[in-house]
Structure formats: structure tokens, C-alpha cells
UniProtKB/TrEMBL annotation:
GO terms for cellular component: cytosol. It comes from the Bacteria. GO terms for molecular function: guanine deaminase activity; zinc ion binding. This is Guanine deaminase. Belongs to the metallo-dependent hydrolases superfamily. ATZ/TRZ family. It comes from Luteimicrobium xylanilyticum. Its EC number is 3.5.4.3. Keywords: Hydrolase, Metal-binding, Zinc. It is an enzyme of class 3 (hydrolase).
Length: 439
């Protein structure tokens, strides 16, 4: 399966999206026997094997994976690498969970060596789960951001990350100031944004942990830094929303705090949005802000049910991607995240089919991030980030998959029954960056 030099060629059943299944019917590129060829990080040929094999340079071995499903690399639109060590912390809702676990754990990232160790584990997990792009919270310390991007550089991945900004309502050791947060973020943008495949996100943690001065400077910095992202949390938990009302009494609501400081727009990514009101959803839509739907986290912390079909309502459609939100989320697997997203949609009586789930995890995520010209689908000229899924990864999955009568059914089974074992291989920039160990 290993590529020859900077060229790779992978053959199998390929699926990719050309349109949004929330709004159209003819959306899937579905090629039973396909070939994906990449060179110098980009897809150079993609199509039916017989028509495409002429594009494989002489001497390049084709990795033939009959029975497997090749799809674009998964995009995790919201995750905290610095919380890798506190997944599965027992028993509390958002604010208690932050105080008891998160704010303790994140202090350890002042130590650059610790940050580098955790970054390695984090990237191993991402790639083992087929995630090739992740919009990532680091900690408040610039060295935690360096560790993240240095590891991403080593893996050759397209990643988005940033230093947390927080200047109140957290332990002193975790606080910056409005000015130091601005200065440190500006220096990190100069160092990392657009450096190879790395992209920077200005990252106020959430409204309660930033003063108005800090949010003001975050907005200024975002304006001054074209192409950067803005990444935060919004309307996750009812107690949190009340807190925001008391901290910002002059604002109309939680979303309006970010709006007031110029923090909504294309390349703004807000995690959760579970309790957004109808007028807030309209504002998210008109500003082209993206929401990260994080079902495993929303269930784990008892935050609530995100109404993805309301979010994608054709009259006021929002950009939506899937997020694991590790460590409040319970799995690095975007496939496992699809499983929970399906159940949440069922509880809201809007069943989500597999085309919608796989779209949100690939092209939908790329569009939410304004990166659809680079990632999210199998197309010539796009970056060669893709995964090889194994429908026979476990005996039960093999048994069930063999009974699937359509690609849509096969994808549904994969989305409901999977974890990291289903990911046989992950390619980033055409390079094999994860191959499942055969037992
Ligand atoms: N809101 C503010 N910080 C966090 C965090 O670390 N995780 C989650 N789930 N929500 C938050
Ligand atoms: Zn989060």
C-alpha cells in the first residue's frame, strides 16, 4: 500500500460528493471500481479504473483494495487536542466539567515537552480515525500551539489551530491579558498561518472567559489577518447562556456578543449552537458563519440536541460540519460521531440518512470552513487527503455489510457500526500516514 516516491495510486470503490444532500438529490459520485492517483500532494487523476489507469506513471504500484470504500478524509470542525487526556471524565455539565477537569488539565501545557507528547498521541488518534483536517483548540500557552503545528508539519496534514484567549473567569495560571493574547496570537499567525498546510484560528475560548477588551482585540486581529479563522463556542448549555446574559447585559443575546465584536463571518467556526434562537440562526446564516455539530459531546455533558435539519433549512441555511469536541466528546471517530448525530436527529424526528452524514464529514465540512477548493472531495486538483474504509473490519460488520443492497445502505451501516477499526488506511497529501495493524 505504500506510495512510490511522491506518487500514489489507490484502487477501490470510491464515494465523494458533488452537491449538498440537504438541498439536492443527485449528490454522490459513486464509482464501484475507481482509481485515485496523486502526485506531489494533489489528486492528478480520479475516475473508473479502466479509464484512469493510463495516468499511473510507469513503475508506480497500484494499491488494489477490493471491497474497501475510499472516501475523502474526514474533517473534524471542533476538537481540543489539550483535552486528549480527560476524555471520559465522570459526571458534570459544562461549567462544572470545565472547572473540575479542563482547567486543571490545560495548565499542564505550559510545559512544551508535555505539549509535544500529547500532540503526538493526538495526531496518532486523528489519523487512526481517518481525520485529515481538524479545527483544533490548543491551550492558552503559545508553546502548546507550536507543539500542535510542529506535529502537523511532521505528518504533512492540513490543520487549523490556535492559542486560546482567556483573560477572566479561569485559574490565574490559565489567563492571558487582552494585550498579551493579541500579541501572542499575532506572532503565532506570522509564524504558522499559511506556512505549508497550516492555518491559524484566533481562538477566544467563549464569551464568559474573555473581557470586552479581549473580544474587541480579537475582532481587530481577525480583520488584520486575512484568511485566518475565528474559533469559539456558543450556546452549548442553558446555564452558560444565562451567565453570558449577566456578563454582557447590553447585548441582545449570546450570539450578539460575538456579532458586536466583529467575530461572525466566513471562516468563523462556532461550536455547538444547540440553543440558538430562530433569529440567531438567521444571523448565523446571513453572516456565513459555520456551526460545528458535536453530538457525542452534547450528549455526554447533557447539553441538548442540536437540530441539524433546522440549521440546514433551505430558507436560512447555515454552514454545518461535524465535530468530536474531544475531551467532552467521547470518540475521535467521525464515524462514531455520525452514529450519535443520527440518533440525535431521530429524537428530533428528522432522520438523517447516510448521504447527509458523510457529506457533513467531508465536503460539507470543507464548505463550512471555506476550504472546498482544497479538501473535502475526490477531484483532480484537490489535496490528496482520503481514507480507505473496510466494511469487513469486524466479523459483525462484515456480516451486516454483505447484506447492504446499495451504496447508501453500506455507508449507513458503516456510520452506525464503526470505530477506528473500520479505517484501514489514511492518506494525507497522497502519503500513507496511517495503516491499520492487521491482527
Ligand atoms: N466552552 C468553553 N470551553 C469549552 C470546552 O473546553 N469544551 C466545551 N465542550 N465547551 C466549552
Ligand atoms: Zn469545545
Amino acid at each position: 500500500m505504500s506510495p512510490t516516491g511522491n506518487v500514489s495510486a489507490v484502487r477501490g470503490h470510491a464515494v465523494s460528493f458533488k452537491a449538498d444532500p440537504f438541498h439536492s438529490d443527485d449528490v454522490l459520485v459513486d464509482i464501484e471500481d475507481a482509481l485515485v492517483v496523486s502526485e506531489d500532494g494533489l489528486i492528478t487523476a480520479f475516475g473508473p479504473y479502466e479509464e484512469t489507469r493510463q495516468h499511473v506513471p510507469e513503475g508506480v504500484e497500484i494499491a488494489h483494495l477490493p471491497g474497501s470504500v475510499i472516501c475523502p478524509g474526514f474533517i473534524d470542525t471542533h476538537v481540543h487536542y489539550v483535552q486528549t487526556g480527560i476524555i471520559g471524565a465522570f459526571g458534570s455539565q459544562l461549567i462544572d466539567w470545565l472547572n473540575h477537569y479542563t482547567f486543571i488539565e490545560e495548565q499542564r501545557f505550559a510545559d512544551a515537552g508535555h505539549a509535544a507528547d500529547v500532540a503526538r498521541v493526538y495526531f496518532d488518534e486523528l489519523l487512526r480515525n481517518g481525520t485529515t483536517t481538524a479545527v483544533t483548540f490548543c491551550a492558552v500557552y503559545p508553546q502548546s500551539v507550536d507543539a500542535f503545528f510542529e506535529e502537523s508539519e511532521r505528518r504533512g496534514t492540513r490543520m487549523i489551530g490556535g492559542k486560546v484567549l482567556m483573560d477572566r473567569n479561569a485559574p490565574d495560571a490559565l489567563l492571558d491579558t487582552a494585550q498579551s493574547g493579541y500579541d501572542d496570537s499575532k506572532a503565532l499567525i506570522a509564524k504558522w498561518h499559511g506556512n505549508g498546510r497550516q492555518l491559524y484560528a484566533i481562538t477566544p475560548r467563549f464569551a464568559p472567559t474573555s473581557t470586552p477588551e479581549q473580544l474587541e482585540l480579537a475582532g481587530t486581529l481577525w480583520q488584520e489577518s486575512p484568511g485566518t479563522f475565528m474559533h469559539t463556542h456558543v450556546s452549548e448549555n442553558l446555564g452558560e447562556i444565562q451567565w453570558v446574559h449577566s456578563l454582557f447585559p447590553d447585548r441582545k443575546g449570546y450570539l450578539d456578543v460575538y456579532d458586536h465584536y466583529g467575530l461572525l463571518g466566513r471562516r468563523a467556526v462556532l461550536a455547538h449552537g444547540v440553543h440558538l434562537t430562530a433569529s440567531e440562526r438567521r444571523r448565523v446564516s446571513e453572516t456565513e458563519t459555520a456551526i460545528a455539530h458535536c453530538p457525542t459531546s452534547n450528549l455526554f455533558l447533557g447539553s441538548g440536541l442540536f437540530h441539524v435539519h433546522d440549521a440546514k433549512d433551505a430558507k436560512h441555511p447555515m454552514h454545518v460540519g461535524l465535530g468530536t469536541d474531544i475531551g467532552a466528546g467521547t470518540s475521535f471517530s467521525i464515524l462514531a460521531t455520525m452514529n450519535e448525530a443520527y440518533k440525535v436527529a431521530e429524537l428530533l424526528s428528522y432522520p438523517m440518512n447516510s448521504l447527509k452524514s458523510f457529506y457533513l464529514a467531508t465536503l460539507g465540512g470543507a464548505r463550512a470552513l471555506d476550504l472546498e477548493d482544497k479538501i473535502g472531495s475526490l477531484e483532480v486538483g484537490k489535496e490528496a487527503d482520503f481514507v480507505v474504509l473496510d466494511p469487513a473490519a469486524t466479523p459483525l460488520l462484515a456480516y451486516r455489510s454483505a447484506r447492504a443492497e446499495s451504496t447508501e445502505e453500506l455507508l449507513f451501516v458503516l456510520s452506525i457500526m464503526s470505530d477506528d477499526r473500520t479505517v484501514a488506511a489514511t492518506y494525507s497529501g497522497g502519503r500513507l500516514v496511517h495503516a491499520r495493524k492487521e491482527s
